[in-house]
Amino acid sequence: MLVWQQNASLKSFNTFGMEVKADWLVLIQDSSDLHELIRDERWQKMPRIILGGGSNVLFTQDFVGVVAILQTKGIAVLEENDEEVLVEVESGEIWHEWVMHCIEKGWGGLENLSLIPGSVGASPMQNIGAYGVEIKDVFVSLNAMHVVTGVECVFTHEQCAFGYRESVFKRAEKDRWIIKSVVFKLSKNPILKMEYGDIQKRLAERNIVHPGIADISEAVCTIRQSKLPDPKVLGNAGSFFKNPVIQKVLYQNLLSQYPTMPHYPVNAEYVKVPAGWLIEQAGWKGKKWETCAVHDRQALVLVNHAHAKGNEIWDLSSAIVADILEKFQIELEREVNVY
Ligand code: FAD
Ligand code: NAP
To answer: Which phi and psi (to 5°) does residue 293 adopt?
Structure first.
């Protein structure tokens, strides 16, 4: 039987640490609870949100509705041979613990995605990515339940329409599905991805010549810990903005003004520019804004310094968007889900 908490604090359920309340809060620890949730009048009639770890959300006000936190657990091997393993993981599993489970078992594919906060169920939402890997690279399918009818459905890789920090669940199917579990295909003989960032530098520091997946994971964790604020210490939701993908023509024009502007090719027509670089160039890195700030080691991350309100973070992000548009003619898009 589900326990419904009225007028509940969401402070410990969002990594920005926003002190906001929800009319109703309910913790889902067993996937059979979902049927009870969906039949409930409060869920049917009021605005609703599903949350995992709350590491990609910004609450700008109290939530007038129901917040359901998915905490379902379970990891099941569906198929296995000498080369690959197909595993179904319940949505409430903690992402980094799942990655560590893979490392322990010798299943390769997710090591570059070590230390990303949040839950397994949220990982397809924005096709989480880091250090040259995205979950689409190992994703097979997911099981979801319709938020109103309770009908269950399998979404294939193609149906998820993954893109750069994108999926169908942020677009056409937004707010329609509870992702219950995700199926991954992992490799027992993985091809390691080490070209990105400082991974090779970290391996060299440790004199590792023939790295394995545990070494890549260690390198990624060490680099991340050196650059990113720990939400338990300083409230944040990771990168606040996506890296903009712009037309090459615009990039070429900007290059004459900013010759050191980094870029990564996307296709013949477009290039990706690091949003962190743009924000830093515009002078925002480390800037304090009332109770919040732009992080001093990573300009893409906005932090809650002391009891910031969600709308202060929103206002800071709006000031950055306006300034970057004026200086670079590039409109930054927020990655964080704002409520
Ligand atoms: P939540 O914040 O709880 O939810 C995010 C969105 O997904 C919400 O809209 C929510 O309604 C929806 N949702 C969540 N669970 C479900 C479900 N089961 N079914 C349906 N909808 C659901 N992201 C990256 O891609 N790469 C990174 O390297 C990265 N690094 C980060 C570093 C830090 C320090 C922080 C704080 C965040 C980082 N993030 C990164 C962002 C974030 O961790 C990921 O997006 C993560 O997948 C969010 O998981 P969550 O469970 O916390 O989702
Ligand atoms: P970084 O290494 O300083 O690089 C800055 C940006 O340049 C990154 O965002 C990355 O884009 C891009 N980039 C760098 N090398 C690249 C390459 N070889 N090919 C293509 N693009 C490249 O980045 P960082 O801030 O320390 O983050 C490292 C990784 O962790 C990145 O992948 C980043 O996305 C991820 N991360 C994500 C979040 C989040 O909340 N979404 C938070 C922290 C870190 P991509 O972002 O497209 O990779």
So the answer is: -160, 165
